[in-house]
Specification:
Helix content is about 15%, strand content about 35%. By secondary structure, the protein is mainly beta. The strands form 13 sheets. It has an 8-stranded mixed β-sheet, with helices on both faces.
C-alpha cells in the first residue's frame, strides 16, 4: 500500500514538473509572432493577414468573414484583392535560410533566391504562378491585372557579334474575359481606378513613345527618337491624363507638359493617327522667374480632377569641367549668425535646398495654369471641394525660421491665394496657431485654433471677417494635461458637417459642433456624457474615401472611448438625439485594423498585458465579435505575470499613479527585486500587450516579470524649471511606497530608462543612493552644453527643447543659468554612488553622443563604477537585430548581478579591449 502511494506521488510530481511553466528568455524571440499586413475586401467577404515571426518565414492566411479558412500560404505576403475580391495576388518569399546561405556564399544579386508571384481565383482557389522577376499591379475595382515581366532573348550562337537582349513586357489580362494584350519594351505605365484606360510608354533602342489605350485602340500621344519620358498621370476616373517628356537626352534639357481629355476619343471626327494632346506651355519669365522651367519630378491630378499639379525648378546649367585634383581642393562650411537656417539644418536638408522645386497648377476645366508656391511661399493647402473653392491657403513660416531654434512651436502667417488671379492676401500674421489650420471643404472659411487665446476661430473668405466660434464653451478646449512651458494645443477636430457649415471639434472628453459663421451657439453633440463619465470619446470615420472629412450628424456615429479612471477602452455609438450607447468596453486596448467599403464588417484588435492583439471581426453592433487569428498559442507555456494600477502620494502631497507589473503567482509575503522604468506617463497603457522581443532601448516588462522581477512604471507630474526634482518626487516617493507596502526588497531596486528617461535617471543617482544599480540610455548629462547641441537628424539646435519643450526649463541659458546647472547631473558626479550601465550610440541623431561621454568621463574621473555601451553606427534607438539582442542580454545580466546576486558576466569584470572587439562578447559568467 505504501509502495502504491509512493508510486502515485512520484507520478504526480513528474506530471507537475512537466506542466510547470517556462521562464521567458532570449531564445523565445524567433518563435513570437506578430500580425503583419491585414486586408479586408471591399465587400467584406474575405480577410487576409500575415502571421510573421520577428525573424524567419511567416504565413499568409485568407479567411471568410465567418472565420472559415480559405487559404494558407507558407512564406506568403502582400496579398491584394482584385476584381471586387474575385481574385487576389500574393508573393511567396524565398526561404530565409536559403537567402542567408546565398549571402554567406557571396552569390551575385541576379542569382540570389527569388520570391515568386501568384494569382488565385478566390471562387475556385485555382492558383497560377506568374513569371519570375515580374511585378503585379491592379486596383480592387478594376477587372484588369497588369503583369510586368522581363523577357530575355538569348544571343545567336552562330553570330559572334550577337548579344543577349533584355526588355520589359507588360501583360494586361482581363480577369473576366481572360483576354490578354502584350506590350513589349514597356517603360512606365499607369491606369485609373476602374481600369478604363491604360497610359504607357514604350522605350526601345531607337524611339520613345507614349500611348493611351482602352484595350481596343492604342492612341499615340508622343514620339521621339531620343529624349526621356519623365512622368505619366491619369485621374482617378480615367477622364483625363498628362505626361512629361523631353525630345533630347541632354542633361540641360527641359521637359514638355502635355494634357489630354479621354472624351476626345469618342468624337466622330477623332482620328488616332492625327490626334495630338494639348501642350501646356510653361516658359521662363512669364509667370515664373527667368532661369526656371518645368521640373520632371512631379505630375498628378487632384482628387476630383479639376487640377493637374506639376512643378517648376531652376533650369539645369552646364557645369564647367573640373580641372583640379583631389589634393588641390578643400571643403568649407561657413556658419553665420545671419543665416536663416543653421549650417547643420542646411546639411540635413541638402537635397531639398540644392534642387528646390515649386508647385504649379493647370486648371483642367478652365484651360489655364498658374504657379502657387515659390521661393518665399512654400506650403499650400487646397480645399477638398474643387468646384466650389475660390481660394487656397498658404501657410508661411519663413519669417520665423531663425527663431525655430528656440521657439516651439513657432508663429506663422496665413495668406489667401486667389485661384483666379494668383493674388496673395495676408489674413493672419505672427499668430501661434495650433492644429488644425485649414480651409473648410468648400473653401469659404479658414479654420484654426489660436493658442494664445485658447479658442477656435473662423475667417470668412467672402466677408474677410474673423469670428471666434467657440464662444460660450465653458470647458477647456486646450490640452489640460500639458505641463511643458509651451502654449497648449487643441484637442483636435473630427470633421465637418455634411453642408460644410460647421466644424466638429473635441474637448478632453466630448464632441462639439461649431457654427463657422459664429451666429449660433456651440452644441455639445455628446451632451457632456464623456466628461460626466471621465471617458474620452473620439469619432471613427467608417465612410470609404471620405477625403472631405464630412460627418452626417443625422446618422449614428461610431466613437472610440478611453476611461481616465479605469483606463479601459471600447466603442460607443452616438445616436442623433445625443444619446450615447455602449457597444463594447472592457479591460483592453482596442484598435481598428480595417473596414469594408459596404460598412458591414469591421476588423479590429484587442489586447491587454495578458492577451496578444489578435484580429477580431464584427459588424457595426459589436454584439458577436469573432476572433479570427491565434498567432501566439505558445504564450500559455510561459510564466507571464499581471499588471495593476497603483496610486500613492508624492512628496508634495499630490496623488500619483503608476503601473505595477507583478510576477506570475506573486507572493504577498515575499519582497521582490524591482526595476523602475519611466519616461513621462504610462498609465494610459495599463492594458497594453508587450511583445517579447530584443529591445530597441527599454525593458520589456514580461521578460522581467517572467523572471520573478517586479516592474514599476510611475507617472511623473512636472513643474517648469524643475524637471529633475519633479522626477525625484514621483519616482522616489513611488519606490518608498513599494517598500512600505512590502513589495520591494529595499536593497534590490534598479532604474532603467532611455533618452528623456535616461536623463532623469542620471539626475536621480546624484540625489539618492536608494537604488542598487541604474541603466540610463542616451542621457543628457549637461544641459549647459546640450542646450546648444545639434539634433543631427534634423539639423535643429536643441535650444527649443529647454526653453519650451520636454526639458521644461522654461527660460534661456543666460536668464536662468543656475536652473541649467542644477538640473545637469555632470556637475554632481561626485555624489553618485550607484553603479551605472550607460548606453549611448555614436550615430545618435537626437541626443549628442558627447552627452554620454561627458557623464561617463565625469564618473571615471570621480572614481565611480560605470560601464558605457556604444553600438557603432547605431541611432538613438537601436535598429539592427544583432545590436538589439546584445543590448538586451547585457542589460538583463547587469540587473541580475546587482538585483539577484547572480555571478558577474566577464564583460563587466574584464571589459572588452579593442583586440577582443567583435570576437569575444564575454556573456559567460565569471568564476
Amino acid at each position: 500500500m505504501k509502495k502504491s502511494i509512493l508510486f502515485f506521488s512520484s507520478v504526480s510530481l513528474c506530471l507537475g514538473l512537466m506542466a510547470q511553466k517556462k521562464v521567458l528568455d532570449h531564445t523565445v524571440y524567433d518563435s513570437w509572432k506578430v500580425i503583419g499586413r491585414t486586408n479586408l475586401s471591399k465587400d467584406s467577404r474575405f480577410i487576409s493577414y500575415e502571421i510573421n515571426p520577428q525573424k524567419g518565414d511567416g504565413v499568409l492566411i485568407v479567411q471568410k468573414n465567418n472565420g472559415d479558412s480559405l487559404l494558407k500560404v507558407e512564406r506568403g505576403s502582400n496579398l491584394n484583392f482584385l476584381d471586387n475580391a474575385n481574385y487576389a495576388t500574393y508573393t511567396v518569399k524565398a526561404y530565409t535560410d536559403s537567402v542567408r546561405i546565398a549571402k554567406l556564399n557571396k552569390v551575385k544579386k541576379e542569382k540570389m533566391p527569388e520570391d515568386t508571384l501568384y494569382m488565385v481565383n478566390l471562387q475556385t482557389l485555382q492558383k497560377e504562378q506568374l513569371p519570375l522577376k515580374s511585378s503585379v499591379q491592379s486596383t480592387a475595382e478594376a477587372p484588369y491585372v497588369f503583369i510586368k515581366k522581363e523577357v530575355v532573348i538569348p544571343k545567336d550562337t552562330a553570330d559572334k557579334k550577337s548579344k543577349e537582349k533584355k526588355f520589359q513586357q507588360l501583360v494586361v489580362r482581363n480577369l473576366q474575359t481572360r483576354d490578354s494584350i502584350l506590350i513589349d519594351s514597356i517603360g512606365q505605365f499607369t491606369y485609373d481606378k476602374k481600369g478604363r484606360f491604360l497610359l504607357y510608354s514604350i522605350e526601345g533602342d531607337s524611339t520613345k513613345n507614349v500611348f493611351v489605350t482602352d484595350y481596343k485602340k492604342h492612341i499615340p500621344l508622343f514620339t521621339s527618337k531620343t529624349g526621356k519620358i519623365s512622368r505619366l498621370s491619369l485621374d482617378e476616373s480615367g477622364n483625363q491624363g498628362a505626361l512629361l517628356a523631353t525630345s533630347d537626352t541632354a542633361k540641360t534639357s527641359v521637359p514638355r507638359l502635355f494634357y489630354f481629355d479621354t472624351a476626345d476619343f469618342n468624337s466622330r471626327k477623332f482620328k488616332s493617327s492625327t490626334y495630338k494632346p494639348k501642350e501646356i506651355l510653361v516658359t521662363e519669365g512669364e509667370k515664373i522667374p527667368k532661369g526656371y522651367g518645368l521640373s520632371p519630378n512631379a505630375l498628378s491630378f487632384s482628387k476630383e480632377g479639376n487640377r493637374l499639379h506639376f512643378s517648376y525648378a531652376e533650369l539645369p546649367k552646364k557645369e564647367e569641367k573640373d580641372t583640379l585634383l583631389a589634393e588641390e581642393k578643400f571643403l568649407l562650411d561657413l556658419w553665420s549668425t545671419s543665416d536663416t537656417l543653421n549650417m547643420p539644418q542646411q546639411i540635413a536638408n541638402k537635397n531639398q535646398l540644392m534642387n528646390p522645386s515649386f508647385n504649379a497648377v493647370f486648371f483642367t476645366k478652365e484651360n489655364r495654369w498658374m504657379p502657387v508656391t515659390d521661393m518665399r511661399y512654400g506650403q499650400i493647402n487646397f480645399a477638398p471641394d474643387e468646384a466650389k473653392a475660390k481660394y487656397a491657403l498658404s501657410i508661411d513660416t519663413e519669417p520665423y525660421l531663425k527663431e525655430m531654434n528656440w521657439e516651439y512651436p513657432y508663429p506663422r502667417d496665413l495668406h489667401l491665394v486667389d485661384l483666379k488671379s494668383g493674388k496673395r492676401e495676408l489674413i493672419s500674421q505672427g499668430e501661434m496657431l495650433g492644429y488644425p489650420t485649414m480651409l473648410n471643404p468648400d473653401g469659404n472659411f479658414v479654420v484654426y485654433f489660436n493658442k494664445n487665446k485658447k479658442a477656435w476661430y473662423a475667417f470668412n473668405t467672402n466677408t474677410r471677417k474673423e469670428v471666434e466660434i467657440s464662444t460660450g464653451i465653458e470647458v477647456p478646449l486646450f490640452d489640460e494635461s500639458n505641463d511643458r512651458p509651451e502654449l497648449p494645443d487643441s484637442y483636435g477636430y473630427a470633421g465637418f458637417s455634411n453642408d460644410m457649415s460647421h466644424i466638429l471639434i473635441y474637448d478632453k472628453y466630448d464632441l462639439w459642433s461649431l457654427d463657422l459663421l459664429g451666429k449660433t451657439a456651440p452644441v455639445c453633440l455628446t451632451k457632456g456624457w464623456g466628461r460626466k463619465h471621465n471617458t474620452r470619446l473620439r469619432l471613427i470615420n467608417l465612410k470609404d474615401d471620405n477625403y472631405k472629412n464630412l460627418v452626417d450628424t443625422n446618422e449614428k456615429i461610431l466613437l472610440s472611448s478611453f476611461n481616465d479612471q479605469t483606463k479601459e477602452n471600447g466603442f460607443y455609438e452616438l445616436i442623433p438625439n445625443g444619446q450615447i450607447e455602449k457597444l463594447i468596453e472592457g479591460p483592453y486596448q482596442f484598435a481598428l485594423r480595417g473596414k469594408a467599403e459596404n460598412g458591414k464588417k469591421i476588423l479590429f484588435t484587442r489586447e491587454n498585458f495578458n492577451e496578444f492583439n489578435d484580429l477580431w471581426i464584427t459588424d457595426r453592433t459589436f454584439k458577436n465579435p469573432l476572433k479570427i487569428s491565434h498567432a501566439n498559442p505558445q504564450m500559455s507555456d510561459y510564466k507571464w505575470g499581471s499588471v495593476e494600477l497603483m496610486k500613492w502620494h508624492d512628496f508634495n502631497g499630490d496623488e500619483i499613479e503608476g503601473l505595477l507589473y507583478k510576477p506570475e503567482n506573486y507572493d504577498p509575503n515575499k519582497k521582490y527585486p524591482v526595476i523602475v522604468y519611466f519616461y513621462e506617463t504610462h498609465t494610459e497603457d495599463l492594458y497594453k500587450y508587450h511583445q517579447p522581443q530584443p529591445s530597441w532601448s527599454i525593458i520589456i516588462p514580461p521578460m522581467f516579470t517572467s523572471d520573478d522581477y517586479v516592474v514599476f512604471m510611475p507617472d511623473i507630474k512636472y513643474k517648469t524649471g524643475y524637471p529633475g526634482e519633479s522626477c525625484y518626487n514621483a519616482v522616489v516617493s513611488g519606490a518608498n511606497a513599494l517598500i512600505e507596502r512590502g513589495i520591494a526588497d529595499p536593497a534590490k531596486m534598479g532604474l532603467q530608462g532611455q533618452s528623456w528617461g535616461g536623463y532623469q535617471i542620471a539626475y536621480l543617482v546624484t540625489r539618492t543612493n536608494m537604488f542598487a544599480c541604474a541603466s540610463p540610455g542616451a542621457p543628457v548629462s549637461n544641459m549647459t552644453s546640450a542646450y546648444s547641441g545639434i539634433r543631427t537628424g534634423s539639423g535643429l539646435v536643441r535650444m527649443f527643447q529647454y526653453e519650451k519643450g520636454q526639458s521644461r526649463i522654461g527660460e534661456d541659458l543666460w536668464s536662468a543659468p543656475m536652473r541649467y546647472i542644477e538640473n545637469s547631473p555632470v556637475f554632481y558626479a561626485p555624489q553618485v554612488n550607484t553603479p551605472l550601465l550607460i548606453r549611448h550610440d555614436d550615430a545618435d541623431e537626437a541626443v549628442p553622443f558627447e552627452q554620454g561621454i561627458e557623464f561617463f568621463m565625469a564618473l571615471k574621473r570621480c572614481g565611480k563604477k560605470a560601464w558605457m555601451l556604444n553600438y557603432n553606427n547605431e541611432p538613438h534607438n537601436l535598429r539592427s537585430w544583432p545590436a538589439r539582442m546584445d543590448w538586451t542580454i547585457r542589460m538583463h545580466q547587469f540587473f541580475d548581478y546587482y538585483l539577484k546576486d547572480k555571478p558577474m558576466p566577464r564583460w563587466m569584470k574584464e571589459g572588452i579591449t579593442i583586440k577582443e572587439k567583435g570576437k569575444d562578447q564575454k556573456y559567460d559568467l565569471a568564476q
